[in-house]
Amino acid sequence: MTDAVLSLRGVGKDYGKRTAVGTIDLEVRRGEIFGLLGPNGAGKTTTISIACGVIAPTRGTVEIGGIALATAPRQAKQKLGLVPQDLAIYEELSATQNLRYFGALYGLRGAVLAERIAWALGAVGLAERAAEPVKQYSGGMKRRCNLAAGLLHRPELVILDEPTVGVDPQSRNHIFDTIRALRRDHGMTVVYVSHYMEEVEALCDRVAIVDRGAIVALGTIEELVAAHAGKGFELELAGDAAAARAAATAHGAVSGDGAVLRLVPTGALAPAIAAIEATGARITSLTSRGTNLEAAFLALTGHALRDGGP
Amino acid sequence: MIVAAIRKDVWLLLRDRGALISLFALPIVFILAFGSMFKFGDGDHQPRVIPISYPAGSELGRKIQRAIDGTLGVAASYVPSDAEVRARVVSEAALAGIIVPADFDPAHGRRIELVLDLAGPIQIRGPLEGVLTGAVMRALAPVDLGALPAMVDVRSPPGLAQPLPEASGFQISVPGNAVLFGFFIALTTAMSFVGERRTGTWRRLLAAPVSRSAALLATLVPYYLVGLAQLGFLFGIGAGLFGMRVAGSLPALVVLSMCVSLCAVSLGLLFAAIATTEKQLGGVGSVMLLVMGLVGGCMFPRVAMPAFMKSIGLAVPHGWALDGYFDILVRQGTTIADVLPNIGALLAFAVGFLVIGLWRFRFDA
Among A77, A88, A93, whose Cβ lies nearest the Cβ of B203? Predict the structure, then answer.
């Protein structure tokens, strides 16, 4: 018997002739914080939309807590909490009014609903401002209210889609603390979708790297770094950096700005250096990098995360 | 869950000043304006005053004045000079006037003058000309026509119940604007769908353990009830403030209003299925609803429209709704059975809007 809380088997989505998500197989284990990392447009949101039953897959099956989403959607969705990337709350209403409505969607009512609202607002640090219209909140507070709306029914699985977009560091840290507490105190499983490398590194036990509608690697951060990020180098250049960058592209994945060039070579480093120097550019320093997730991402996809794809 | 959705949408509506004004306050302004326009006379049930001048002591002048006074909807008022009669028509203080010359002799071209703005609309000019010419001819008749036995009976044909006596213009302007603004709930409904999609709350709703039909109903039902409340409010204001009366049965008014609100929210679903932004709805949707209201007779009674326009009016639900309301408010004894064709037509429109709306609606847009 599997301990997977979320299983995607052969899941994909086509829009006409365009494939948004190829074929994805994924299992999220009970109690883990699982990262879904990829640039904007990689297919992350489409994948989680399928996982939540918001859009129907063109192929494949989804199970939440062992229940097939296609055959028992209401039971499966009861185990799931979604925190969308958009601020999916009514800004004219107070946090309490919002949560009262969203709680009712999960069958919560009366004293139970009141207790859950108090708990969720306390968990995200909004208890004292619960009666104020959400439109009076700061960006970070709105994000935390958005998070609370996905937690009310204490789901087994919470999917957070880019939950820290546009928030201040203080609110971001608060959201991180809340996520860790959800796992620690309530045993919730979390899928954390982001294009922020450092957030995924800080939070997640395992990570799936998504690019162009497919999972290109999956494992713990240590596994991904060990397997894919060992050959990264940072070169400082003098002379024609643009020509050097163009020459290096033929020998591996290239990123970096101006005189700094980061290279994950596809083979040995020497041919790449020779090609750079052949352009007339001079390498003033060479540092071995490749000890973090960013280098692994670069090696796997051939482009930096912030580039959003080649 | 539907109850929670109703509560949430009522909260939202109460905080949306623009929607409250357009749904509840603006119709009252229109009812007042149109109700005043449709009055026939200077006040409720007052005849239109026709200034008349004739030489002092003219027996013919007095006979014509009496004949006008005996005519339904008009009353003569003596003024001392011909110029005063003409001045009143020019200044629009009067729609028409009569001047009886001292040397009245039709055989030699010295006729009675009917003073009328010949550039006025035929709908007003025609009946006035006929009424006043008839009064003059009765006064000139060689015998006392009033002493003859009645030769004409004025009756509604079988199937059309007797109207309320002395119905005011508000009998027309209240239902006209109730229907016009009642259908604007379609826009509010569609805006709600598009807004929920834009903000992501629709996505959150679809991720909840709620069926897609329940998700639709969670938006349609609250606005259906708001639409009903709006119609109830407007008819209540019409009766309480403007003296509108219900000549037929109250249940018929309620059932017809339920059908109007259903039709309006169904149209809202169709709008939401077609439009992708609130800007589109605010522009195209508003114009469409205004045109439908105009064609359906909400602003100008269909009865006064040319035959072609009258028939086009029944191609929109507004026309059927207004015809039904007219029967219920004006014709005495009108029952639900009498307005069944209107109810049927409104339900057919609602089903049509729902079917096309559901066919085109993108849940995951």
Answer: A88
